[in-house]
Design a protein that fits this description.
By secondary structure, this protein is mainly α. Helices cover 54% and strands 7% of the residues.
């Protein structure tokens, strides 16, 4: 039976951190056995906000590829590729740009939010406004049925469905409407209790060394109301406990919560406990990453093979698009 197609991408921001992993990458790995998966590094999307400073994109791209492979993305099961190396992404974005009303783009909630949040950047560009058009091209170029998202992110897909419906209405049923594939998205706070983000400089890299994990965890903010060792704590308001829920066995989680509430353990002991469990879980990823870093030619081969597969799939789609729109199709009728 033909598997449904899943498509997702990640911006090249350097090494993947634990927020990226638990919010997206782990789900990508888990989906490989049930779906036909296509995953990419979205380096063209990086230009929408970082077009004036691109010096780190290339190295960040390779870091992202290595981390994805070390995390368990299997090129024998999934197509792993680089967005900019498949020119049909830009080609289809131009086509969709011809039919997408400006009003649709201007009403996207994240458009005004990001302009406000990134005031230091000049985002009055076509590329930034047209981000959803390129996103739609990314998805539909591979006839994706599903895009893995958390339940709070489905609204981001609605404009893609609107563009697809408009295209299909003009030219016939070329593309399936992409649907949300709900995936787990556990809370992963940064070491300062805010959302884990490189913008806040509060991340822990998935490939962090044992010493780096120790330093980060020991610096974590804990229950702000627990001023003294003898004060009872509240796991629900402690920044440490969500990490226990991710890295400690269930029976240990119960012990941690109970001993925190009764002040039977201090925050330092709780951190040491977490450090042991995190390092045990992360060690296999470190080892796989070290192996890949020692063989950069192998990583490049994997990426080039994925690029080639993606270009073939994309070329087939663009032939269908050209045919439906009445444009010239190479090898077809004039």
């Amino acid at each position: 039976m033909t598997r449904k197609i899943v498509l997702s991408g990640i911006r090249p921001t350097g090494r993947i951190h634990l927020g990226n992993y638990w919010g997206a990458v782990k789900n990508w790995v888990d989906l490989q056995d049930a779906y036909d998966c296509r995953y990419f590094i979205a380096d063209l999307h990086a230009l929408t906000t970082s077009y004036a400073e691109t010096s780190s994109i290339r190295s960040a791209t390779m870091d992202g590829v290595v981390d994805l492979l070390a995390s368990g993305i299997d090129p024998e099961k999934s197509v792993l590729f680089l967005q900019s190396q498949v020119p049909q992404h830009a080609e289809l974005a131009v086509v969709f740009g011809m039919i997408t009303p400006l009003g649709w783009l201007e009403r996207v909630p994240t458009y005004k939010e990001q302009i406000e949040q990134l005031r230091e950047k000049d985002l009055g560009t076509y590329g930034f406004l047209g981000y959803p058009v390129l996103m739609t091209a990314d998805i539909t170029l591979y006839r994706a049925n599903f895009v893995p998202v958390g339940k709070d992110q489905e609204s981001h897909l609605e404009i893609s469905r609107e563009i697809v419906r408009r295209f299909n209405g003009f030219y016939g049923e070329v593309f399936p409407e992409p649907q949300a594939l709900y995936t787990p998205s556990p809370k992963v706070p940064g070491i300062d209790a805010r959302k884990m983000s490189k913008s806040y400089d509060n991340t822990i890299a998935l490939s962090a060394s044992a010493d780096e994990v120790k330093t980060a965890v020991m610096a974590m903010v804990t229950d702000p109301k627990r001023a003294r060792r003898a004060d009872p704590g509240d796991p629900d308001t402690c920044n440490l406990y969500p990490f226990h829920q991710l890295y400690s066995p269930e029976d240990e989680q119960k012990t941690v919560a109970e001993e925190c509430r009764t002040a039977a353990r201090g925050c330092v002991d709780c951190k040491k406990h977490l450090i042991r469990n995190m390092n045990t879980a992360l060690e296999p990823v470190r080892e796989r990453r070290a192996t890949l870093e020692a063989k950069p030619e192998l990583v490049r081969e994997v990426l080039e093979a994925g690029n080639e597969k993606a270009r073939k799939l994309a070329s087939e789609t663009m032939e269908s698009v050209s045919s439906a729109m009445g444009l010239y199709v190479s090898g077809g009728k004039p």
